[in-house]
Each structure stands twice: as C-alpha cells, then as structure tokens.
C-alpha cells in the first residue's frame, strides 16, 4: 500500500477531525503515539499524529490546544542532545559527546560486545566513556525532572542503548513512564540544530493515509503530499 503523509498545523488537525466526524469515520485515540486512528471502509484509513501541545478528549472526540512543557532527548552512539521546552520555546539545552565507536569497524562498543562478548583494553576505555556519557545525560535529565513540570518526554534512542539510558544508576526516569513519547522521525546527527528541528516537527500534526483515498486527497487539495515507504511505522 502506498501511503502519503503531510505535516499540518494545529488548526488543520482540528479541521480534519471535524471532517472525519462528519464523514462518519471511526476514531480511536492511541495514547502511546499521541495519535488518532480513523477507519472508514476497509481501504479508507488514516492516522493523525497530534501536535504535542494538543489534548484529545475521548468522551466527546474534541481536540484543544493548551500550554505544554516537554523534554526532547536525541541519542546515538557517542553523541546526544537534550533540551527543555516550554510551549515550544527553548529554555535550556546541552549536547554530549563520547568515545564509543570502534574506528575500524564503525560499530559502537555496545553493539560489539553484544556480538563478540569480549572486552580488551580499548574496549574497557570505550565502555568507561559510555558510562560517563550516559551519567551526564541522566544528570541533566534528572535536573529537568526535578526543576520543571513536564508533560512529555520525547526520546529518539536505539533500543540497544536503552539499558544504559533507563538505568537507575543513571537517571530516575523509567522506560515505563507514561510521559515518554518516541520521536517518529529519523535523526542522523543529534546536534542542537536537530533538537530544534525535532521541536518544530513535534508541534505539527502529521497525517498519514492511503494515497488511493480520494476524499482525503480532496480535503488537502493544493497541499504538498509526500509518499512514504510501505513499511513506515503507523
């Protein structure tokens, strides 16, 4: 199935919700993705990731925008950036770097140990650097959790690094925390610029639908549509 997506504003997100209600689409809120799933006929389906500053009321299928505070954390092997945002405004941020990658193989020490299970002198140095790296991230994250009221914690981090990030010796944050929200966007380099880009992205709604659905195509006529990979995670 060829899927199409489009970033839309909070106002257009509300307009689409009202349109779907008028068209008698079934509506289901998926809290783990802050997303609405719309079902019409078997082929007419759509998904709307809601802007991070919006709240959905299931009892009357209403959508409203409110002030929100959130943290964005981007992590890759050897680099990370974290920021605290109040209603989209950048209040604080920090970037981190560590020696975690084996130069010849281009593989992080964490992944290398998962496949080889051995640790020599260079490996121990990289592991020590990895531990310091995540402790510094955890320290800044805990400062945010202690100082501010936080509605959402948006994280982009490979699951191979979760044991380091969600570690009680690193941070008080648990991976079961209901405020955690995955960043549905690939981040190649977790720089400060990437942090700002993700912040803008999370404040937009993202509509995904079957490109063959003529109703939705007409609803957004005149807007740029972008095809997605068939295996895109809805």
Automatic annotation (TrEMBL):
Domain spans labelled VLRF1: 66-205
Predominant location category: cytoplasm
Subcellular location: Cytoplasm
Identification of the protein by name: VLRF1 domain-containing protein
Keyword Ribosomal protein: no
Recorded family membership: Belongs to the ANKZF1/VMS1 family.
InterPro entries: ANKZ1/VMS1, VLRF1/Vms1
UniProt keyword terms in alphabetical order: ANK repeat, Coiled coil, Cytoplasm, Endonuclease, Hydrolase, Nuclease, Repeat
Keyword Transcription: no
């Amino acid at each position: 199935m060829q899927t199409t997506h489009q970033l839309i504003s909070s106002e257009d997100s509300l307009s689409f919700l009202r349109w779907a209600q008028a068209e008698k689409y079934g509506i289901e809120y998926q809290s783990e993705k802050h997303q609405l799933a719309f079902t019409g006929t078997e082929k007419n389906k759509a998904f709307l990731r809601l802007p991070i500053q919006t709240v959905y009321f299931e009892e009357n299928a209403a959508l409203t925008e409110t002030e929100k505070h959130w943290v964005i954390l981007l992590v890759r092997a050897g680099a990370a950036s974290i920021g605290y945002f109040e209603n989209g405004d950048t209040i604080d941020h920090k970037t981190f770097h560590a020696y975690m990658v084996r130069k010849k193989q281009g593989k992080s020490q964490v992944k290398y140990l998962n496949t080889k299970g051995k640790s020599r002198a260079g490996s121990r140095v990289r592991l020590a650097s990895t531990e310091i790296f995540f402790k510094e991230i955890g320290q800044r994250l805990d400062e945010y959790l202690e100082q501010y009221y936080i509605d959402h914690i948006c994280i982009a981090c490979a699951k191979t690094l979760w044991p380091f990030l969600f570690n009680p010796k690193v941070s008080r944050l648990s991976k079961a925390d209901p405020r955690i929200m995955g960043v549905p966007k690939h981040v190649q380099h977790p720089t400060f610029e990437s942090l700002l880009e993700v912040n803008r992205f999370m404040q937009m709604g993202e509509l995904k639908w079957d490109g063959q659905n003529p109703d939705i195509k007409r609803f957004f006529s005149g807007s740029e549509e972008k095809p997605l990979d068939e295996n895109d995670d809805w």
